[in-house]
Design brief:
Number of strands of chain B: 7
Number of domains of chain B: 2
CATH topology of the largest domain in chain B: Fumarate Reductase Iron-sulfur Protein, Chain B, domain 2
Structural class of chain A: mainly alpha
Strand content of chain A: under 5%
Order of helices and strands of chain A: HHHHHHHHH
Number of helices of chain B: 8
CATH superfamily of the largest domain in chain B: Alpha-helical ferredoxin
Strand order of the largest sheet of chain B: 2-1-5-3-4
Largest sheet of chain A: none
Number of domains of chain A: 1
Oligomer: heterodimer
Distance between the termini of chain B: 64 Å
Helix content of chain B: 25-40%
Strand content of chain B: 5-15%
Shape of chain B: elongated
Largest sheet of chain B: 5 strands, mixed
Chain lengths: 233, 248
């Protein structure tokens, strides 16, 4: 190696406050992304299972919504945890991305990916688009501000009238496909970030991630598709 | 065979630098990539031009000196191969090749295809070692090393510090390099006492050197001339997280 001089001072000896130091390193931030990712993944699964009750009819779905709203303490606790997780997940992602961009100020004239998957390479696209979708989704079905025909607490009816507008359904489907890609990379990546990797189990984990991401996409997309097809009305 | 080469030419660290097109008719399928460049450099010298600068030493694929991007792939992208061991038989007559130096803020270009990799040296100096008592030599086989641990340490110790992992990583992260060193030393009983402080110090230094952050894409593993697996990055993460947890 050229220029053997070890000029820069050794930062390692520096005493840093523990929590700030943890957040300061990319590994600490990635661990936070993994943990918040697990929480958000759990929410995605629960949210899908809850919503699939639409196929059981209006009474069932509206009753489920009423049940959630009958426990405001639990509901708001869950909302705060989710909001905190989303905030930390995004903050870490933005800071890590900026650090990576700064790490290569001059790019290559030619660069070919050798192993990186499509899902992995597009995390920084799928992430912000999903975040924008979540904002729209909340305005659409939770607050009703983006829903032209919103009826408070009539969940089933709101979903049907909302998804009958095909561009809206299309945006939902596109967002869910991107969520699928995001999960496909994120689901196994979180294990790697937390330090678990095994020559035998990691390939299985990647297969599991692909299957699970597909199930999430299929489950969520089935709702707008069923409405557009007239199966749910 | 005839080749068209687009080579990054940069006179000095402060020079702006540019891609320059060269043509050579003297490439032979039996040559290594570096031998092909040697011949091109002879032509350049006889024409009164400055030869293309590139790092090289052993030319056996074991020293870690050589390395640059060929058509956007570190070391040309052939599994387990450094550019000195990459042979021209992998290319066709008339091929057009783009040669660029490793690109990372932590690896400033010194000249043409030569980059300054002393950031790696500083990471090693921060914790990539074991402390031993000087004095009389300990008895051979005094410390028992499980075969599996020895194997894993040897696999990680294959890292030659060429920097291809950083160059191929879309984030310019040095995680594979640091993970290899942490796995190598941490797998052996002699490296255990400093396992945690080593992870803390090497990771802190890696961050200080302004390398990027790992997104688990696996480009490093795929282009590593020594087949260092992505698993070593998980090991680094595990050691670092455990160390930060226990650190008081």
């Amino acid at each position: 190696m050229s220029a053997p001089a070890i000029a820069k001072p050794n930062v390692a000896a520096k005493n840093f406050s523990q929590l700030a130091g943890f957040w300061d390193t990319p590994i600490g931030k990635k661990a936070v992304m993994a943990v918040t990712g697990v929480i958000l993944f759990g929410f995605v699964v629960g949210h899908m299972l809850g919503n699939l009750q639409i196929f059981l009819g209006a009474e069932k779905l509206d009753a489920y919504a009423a049940l959630l709203h009958s426990m405001p303490g639990v509901l708001w606790m869950a909302r705060l945890v989710l909001l905190g997780s989303v905030g930390l997940h995004i903050l870490a992602a933005v800071q890590l991305t900026l650090q990576s961009w700064e790490a290569r100020p001059r790019g290559y004239v030619k660069k070919e990916p050798v192993a990186a998957t499509y899902a992995g390479r597009t995390m920084r696209w799928s992430g912000p688009i999903i975040a924008a979708f979540v904002v729209y989704h909340l305005l659409h079905f939770t607050f009703g501000a983006a829903h032209p025909d919103f009826q408070p607490s009539k969940v089933y009816q709101n979903v049907v009238t909302g998804f009958q507008v095909w561009p809206v359904s299309l945006f939902y489907i596109v967002a869910m496909v991107l969520l699928g890609f995001h999960l496909q990379h994120g689901l196994w990546s979180m294990f790697q970030s937390l330090g678990f990797s095994h020559p035998r189990y990691t390939p299985k984990l990647k297969q599991f991630a692909t299957v699970f991401a597909t199930v999430i996409v299929a489950g969520n997309c089935s709702i707008p598709i069923a409405v557009l097809a007239g199966l749910v009305k | 065979m005839r080749l068209i080469l687009h080579v990054w030419r940069q006179k000095s660290p402060n020079d702006e630098g540019r891609m320059v097109r060269y043509e050579t008719n003297h490439a032979d399928p039996h040559m290594s990539f570096l031998e092909m460049l040697d011949v091109l450099n002879e032509e350049l010298i006889s024409n009164g031009e400055e030869p293309i600068a590139f790092d090289h030493d052993c030319r056996e694929g074991i020293c870690g000196s050589c390395g640059f991007m060929i058509n956007g792939k570190a070391h040309g992208g052939h599994p387990g191969t450094t550019v000195c061991q990459l042979h021209m038989r992998h290319f066709k007559d008339g091929d057009e090749l783009y040669l660029e130096p490793w690109r990372a803020k932590a690896f400033p270009v010194l000249k043409d295809l030569v980059v300054d990799r002393s950031a790696f040296d500083r990471i090693i100096a921060a914790g990539g070692f074991i402390s031993v008592r000087t004095g009389s030599a300990p008895d051979g086989n005094d410390i028992l090393v499980p075969k599996e641990a020895a194997d894993r340490a040897m696999d990680a110790a294959q890292c030659i510090g060429c920097g291809a992992c950083v160059a191929s990583c879309p984030n310019a992260s040095a995680s594979l390099f640091v993970g290899a060193k942490i796995s190598h030393l941490g797998s052996l009983p002699q490296g255990k006492p400093e396992q945690e402080i080593r992870a803390m110090r090497m990771v802190a230094q890696m961050n200080e050197e302004l390398f990027g952050t790992c997104t688990n894409l696996g480009e490093c593993e795929a282009t590593c001339p020594k087949h260092i697996p992505l698993e070593v990055i998980a090991r680094m993460n595990r050691d670092y997280l455990a160390a930060s947890w226990k650190h008081r």
